[in-house]
Structures are given as C-alpha cells and as structure tokens.
Amino acid sequence: MNLPPVIAIDGPTASGKGTVASLVAEKLGFHYLDSGALYRLVALGSQKASIDPKNGPELGILATNLVISFKNGQILLNSEDVTEVIRTESIGLRASAIAVHPEVRQALVGVQHSFRTIPGLVADGRDMASVIFPDAVLKVFLTATAEARAERRYKQLIAKGISVKLADLLHDLQERDARDSSRGTAPLLVAEGAKVLETSELSIDQAVKTVLDWYQSKAA
Ligand code: CDP
Ligand code: CDP
C-alpha cells in the first residue's frame, strides 16, 4: 500500500521550520505537523504535574496519557487552550530537557504517524527525516546562523509585546542547540539524503519557493 507523501523539514530553533513548513503545506493542500508542539505539551504537562525533567520513566507515562488535540489553529491539553502558553522560551528549554528521554520520544511516535493522511503531510521538527518519516519523499534541513535565529526570535517576541534581551535569547538558543544535537536518542542532524537550506540571507518566500521547487522536481 502506498502511504501519502511526506515532506520532512528539520532544523535548529528559530530556523524558520514552522513558518516555512506550514506555508508549504498550505500551498500543496497538505496536512501540517508541528512535532515540537508535542514536546512542548509534554513539558507543560510535566511542569503542571511537578515531574522532574530527569525522570524519563514517569515522563514517558505522562506523554502516553496526555489528551492532546489540534483544532482550528488551537492546541488543547486536557481540553485547556494552551496555544500561547507552550510558546514561551522556558517551556522550549524544558521541552528540550524532556526530549532527551527515549520513553518520551517513543510515546509520541504514534501520534506523529497519525498525521500522515491523504493527500500528504509536511512535518517539522528535529528527527522527522531521520526517525519518524525515514521514507519522506523530500528531506530538508533548514538552518541559519545562531545570530540570525536569535534576532528572528527576538523580533517575534517583541511583536507579541514580550520583553526579552537579545543576549539571553542567543544564550538559551545555543544551550538548546547543544542539547538537541548531542543527545543519544534522535539527535538533531542532517539526515542522509537531506538537502540543506541556509536561510540567513533568504526571505520566507524564497525559502518556501525553494522547498516547493525541490518537491516538484522529486514528484515529477
Ligand atoms: O519553527 P522555528 O522555531 O524553526 O522558526 P519559526 O517560528 O518558523 O520562525 C522564527 C521567526 O523567523 C518567525 O518570526 C519567522 O517569520 C522568521 N523567519 C524569517 O525572518 N526569515 C526566514 N527565512 C524564516 C523565518
Ligand atoms: O520552535 P523551536 O524550534 O524553538 O522549538 P520546537 O520545534 O517547538 O521544539 C521544542 C523542543 O522540542 C526542541 O528544542 C527539541 O528539544 C524538542 N523536539 C524534539 O526533540 N524533536 C522534535 N521532532 C521536535 C522538537
């Protein structure tokens, strides 16, 4: 049986994965999976339940039992709207801490696979191409310099009225990059066969067009 096609877009924090992946999905009429949101949900759930971020087995049980739903752009955790709450930098850092545990990663495999439905899926994260969808028709590793990414995140937060220091953001982002790239299970890496897209000097439109062109040439 032929499974619907997947475009896997991985990369470090604030490389533009979410923005580019959701626009590519919209252009193609595909579904979109923001896998980072799942790790952020586990991070939030574990904070609420006061579970130690080092306790893999307990976090795995929590991740298995979380009631999550994605509806009309809203993300619900146990029926509560947490769309905005999960986007804070502190939840991002906690997400990268809990994401090192194989028990947590294993608990989230099924829900990620369930997004792969007709006519196709664009999935973004850290291990979309290497672990979750190794048969993706197109694998993209999106990246940009740490400075460009910190600057992007800074503008994003300032636009939301959240006051932050650029130097703190750069520090947190480098801490998260280091942990995501060095963990034993499903580290952030350029998967075999992935195309690298350096976006420091690219607009969002240019990045989206490049991914669409690559997809058309694969699909042709
Ligand atoms: O999902 P990820 O953390 O990789 O990044 P994002 O939230 O999609 O993008 C971070 C910010 O960078 C957003 O405000 C995007 O609009 C911006 N961005 C950009 O300025 N230029 C790009 N080529 C891509 C994203
Ligand atoms: O938007 P940003 O790139 O800052 O983060 P995210 O994609 O929402 O992911 C938050 C954290 O979850 C990352 O720092 C990773 O540690 C983890 N994550 C992961 O391990 N595997 C994924 N497929 C997606 C996210």
From TrEMBL:
Q: Which InterPro entries match?
A: Cytidylate_kin, Cytidylate_kinase_dom, P-loop_NTPase
Name the Enzyme Commission number(s) assigned to this protein: 2.7.4.25
Q: Which UniProt keywords apply?
A: ATP-binding, Cytoplasm, Kinase, Nucleotide-binding, Transferase
Transmembrane annotation, as ranges: none
Pinpoint the Cytidylate kinase domain residues.
7-215
Under catalytic activity, the entry for this protein gives: dCMP + ATP = dCDP + ADP; CMP + ATP = CDP + ADP
Task: Provide a GO biological process annotation.
Answer: pyrimidine nucleotide metabolic process
**Where is this protein found?**
Cytoplasm
Provide a GO CC annotation, any one.
cytoplasm
The residues that hold ATP are G11, P12, T13, A14, S15, G16, K17, G18, T19
Domain of life the protein comes from: Bacteria
Q: Does the keyword Transferase apply?
A: yes
Give any Pfam family that matches. Answer: Cytidylate_kin
Q: Which GO molecular function entries does the Swiss-Prot or TrEMBL record give?
A: ATP binding; CMP kinase activity; dCMP kinase activity
- Family membership, please give it: Belongs to the cytidylate kinase family. Type 1 subfamily.
Q: What is this protein called?
A: Cytidylate kinase
| Native species | Polynucleobacter aenigmaticus
Q: Which gene encodes it?
A: cmk
